[in-house]
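Lab notebook, design round three. We kept the backbone fixed and only want residue identities now. Task for the bench partner: fill in a sequence for the structure below.
Input structure tokens:
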């Protein structure tokens, strides 16, 4: 089949999803001269329609098309909700061995979401008209023959480094107007959170970017609209035609802004062009502390502890014992599942299923209540990585529960790992505030990237567990030096160089 024939056939098709997707995908195979699933893999081991997948919230689902090591595709009809289709794929992807490309299609458009690790996420849309071009046809062929061609060349770390550099310029500019450094830091964190929030759909798409664009010709307009938006985020209110969620958490505790001139808005406009959804939280805090703290700005390009290095430290201390316990829980759970499935009476099956459910819930609760302390937490990078590893293991538990036919596990605080179980001590006020932002941005990013939605309002809760104090020295009422009290925790993590001092 030629591209012209394909486009002519599918241009005006109004078939429902189920009625059209098998033929549509078969035609795509014909266009790029690739075997269909039945031709390439009659047994359906690596290339199949209706590929069985366990939903991460429990229960069984089916991806419309799956090609191991290449892609998973979810189809909708011409008027179908492709955002919902993508959320479905996020639910399936672990069961489908994390294909590098997650694709949604409504018979008129093919929307490709990259799913590579350690890269920014990219979205590529191919329309029917695109398939009539050389570039569009090459992209279609790459889906089947060369999925690596879609790997973004820029990494999340590079995006984060660029963002910190731009914010350092903005902070330097604001400093010329005699704003106190701490006011500049707090305001800058508000700005960067807004950019992050709009890129993961916590704020309406491009809302803050449009405010910045509109303010380039009139800085007073930007300052006024930013003040109105912050007020809405502080309480949860309307902003124009948009209903804004309640954020607060201390970051949006009022509507204060630092008045910016046109040069400052221009600097912010450049920052807004970055992909803030792909920011790397494990280095975010360190780089932004350097960019916002005047005393550290000269160190912006200096070496920092990478995520891989942090994992090397956190994994054996925090995760190794939990993974060992999880293996034992899996064995017990499988035995209980076999007992349930072999039960000869409904009462016996119910009793075994309840024991199985309690077994899984007890381990999930252990993950949600393990307290992690970093007594020199800096900007929160070790705490973020600890939370991410706990969440990843919790998701593995949730998938396992679904495979055993149990009810969904919900990533709610108390039922799943959350920022509330992280404890930190930091004396530097720039780092202290950024540690809270790092943890929240990392947590919200994980929920978004894994298709779990977002927390209930307020979106940001105060992280009183991260304290600003000296972890080594305190003074009693008489002014005598005493050992400060540390929060209780099951695990202590942190930078080895700090503990070695």
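Proposed sequence:
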């Amino acid at each position: 089949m030629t591209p012209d024939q394909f486009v002519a056939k599918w241009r005006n098709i109004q078939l429902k999803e189920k009625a059209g997707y098998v033929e549509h995908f078969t035609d795509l195979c014909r266009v790029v001269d690739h075997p269909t699933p039945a031709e390439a893999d009659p047994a359906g081991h690596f290339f199949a329609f209706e590929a069985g997948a366990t939903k991460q919230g429990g229960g069984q689902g089916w991806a419309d098309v799956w090609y191991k090591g290449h892609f998973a595709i979810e189809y909708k009809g011409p008027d179908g909700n492709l955002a919902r289709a993508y959320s479905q794929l996020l639910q399936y992807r672990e069961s489908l061995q994390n294909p590098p490309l997650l694709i949604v299609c409504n018979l008129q458009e093919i929307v490709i979401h990259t799913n590579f690790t350690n890269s920014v996420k990219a979205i590529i849309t191919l329309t029917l008209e695109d398939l009539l071009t050389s570039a569009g046809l090459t992209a279609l062929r790459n889906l089947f023959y060369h999925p690596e061609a879609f790997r973004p060349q820029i990494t999340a770390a590079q995006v984060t480094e660029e963002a910190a550099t731009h914010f350092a310029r903005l902070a330097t500019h604001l400093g010329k107007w005699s704003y106190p450094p701490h006011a500049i830091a707090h305001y800058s964190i508000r700005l960067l959170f807004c950019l992050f929030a709009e890129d993961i759909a916590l704020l309406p798409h491009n809302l803050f970017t449009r405010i910045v664009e509109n303010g380039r010709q009139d800085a007073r307009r930007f300052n006024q609209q930013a003040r109105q938006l912050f007020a809405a985020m502080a309480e949860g209110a309307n902003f124009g035609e948009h209903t804004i969620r309640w954020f607060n958490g201390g970051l949006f505790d009022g509507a204060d802004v630092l008045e910016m001139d046109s040069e400052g808005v221009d600097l912010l406009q450049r920052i807004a062009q970055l992909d803030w959804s792909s920011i790397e939280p494990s280095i975010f805090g360190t780089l932004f502390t350097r960019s916002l703290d005047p005393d550290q700005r000269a160190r912006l390009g200096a070496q920092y502890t990478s995520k891989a290095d942090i994992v090397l430290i956190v994994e054996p201390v925090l995760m190794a014992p939990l993974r060992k316990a999880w293996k034992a829980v899996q064995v017990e759970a499988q035995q209980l599942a076999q007992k349930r499935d072999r039960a000869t009476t409904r009462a016996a099956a119910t009793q075994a299923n309840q024991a199985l459910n309690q077994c899984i819930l007890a381990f999930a609760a252990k993950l949600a209540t393990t307290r992690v302390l970093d007594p020199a937490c800096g900007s929160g990078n070790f705490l973020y990585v600890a939370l991410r590893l706990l969440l990843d293991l919790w998701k593995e538990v949730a998938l396992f529960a679904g495979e055993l036919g149990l009810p969904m596990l919900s990533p709610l605080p108390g039922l799943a790992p959350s920022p509330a179980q992280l404890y930190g001590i930091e004396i530097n006020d720039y780092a202290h505030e950024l540690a809270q932002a790092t943890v929240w941005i990392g947590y919200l990013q994980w929920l978004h990237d894994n298709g779990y939605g977002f927390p209930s309002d307020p979106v940001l809760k105060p992280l009183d567990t991260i304290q600003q104090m000296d972890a080594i020295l305190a003074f009693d009422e008489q002014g005598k030096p005493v050992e400060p009290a540390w929060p209780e925790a099951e695990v202590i993590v942190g930078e080895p160089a700090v503990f070695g001092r």
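Keep this in mind before ordering anything: The longest helix spans residues 307-342.
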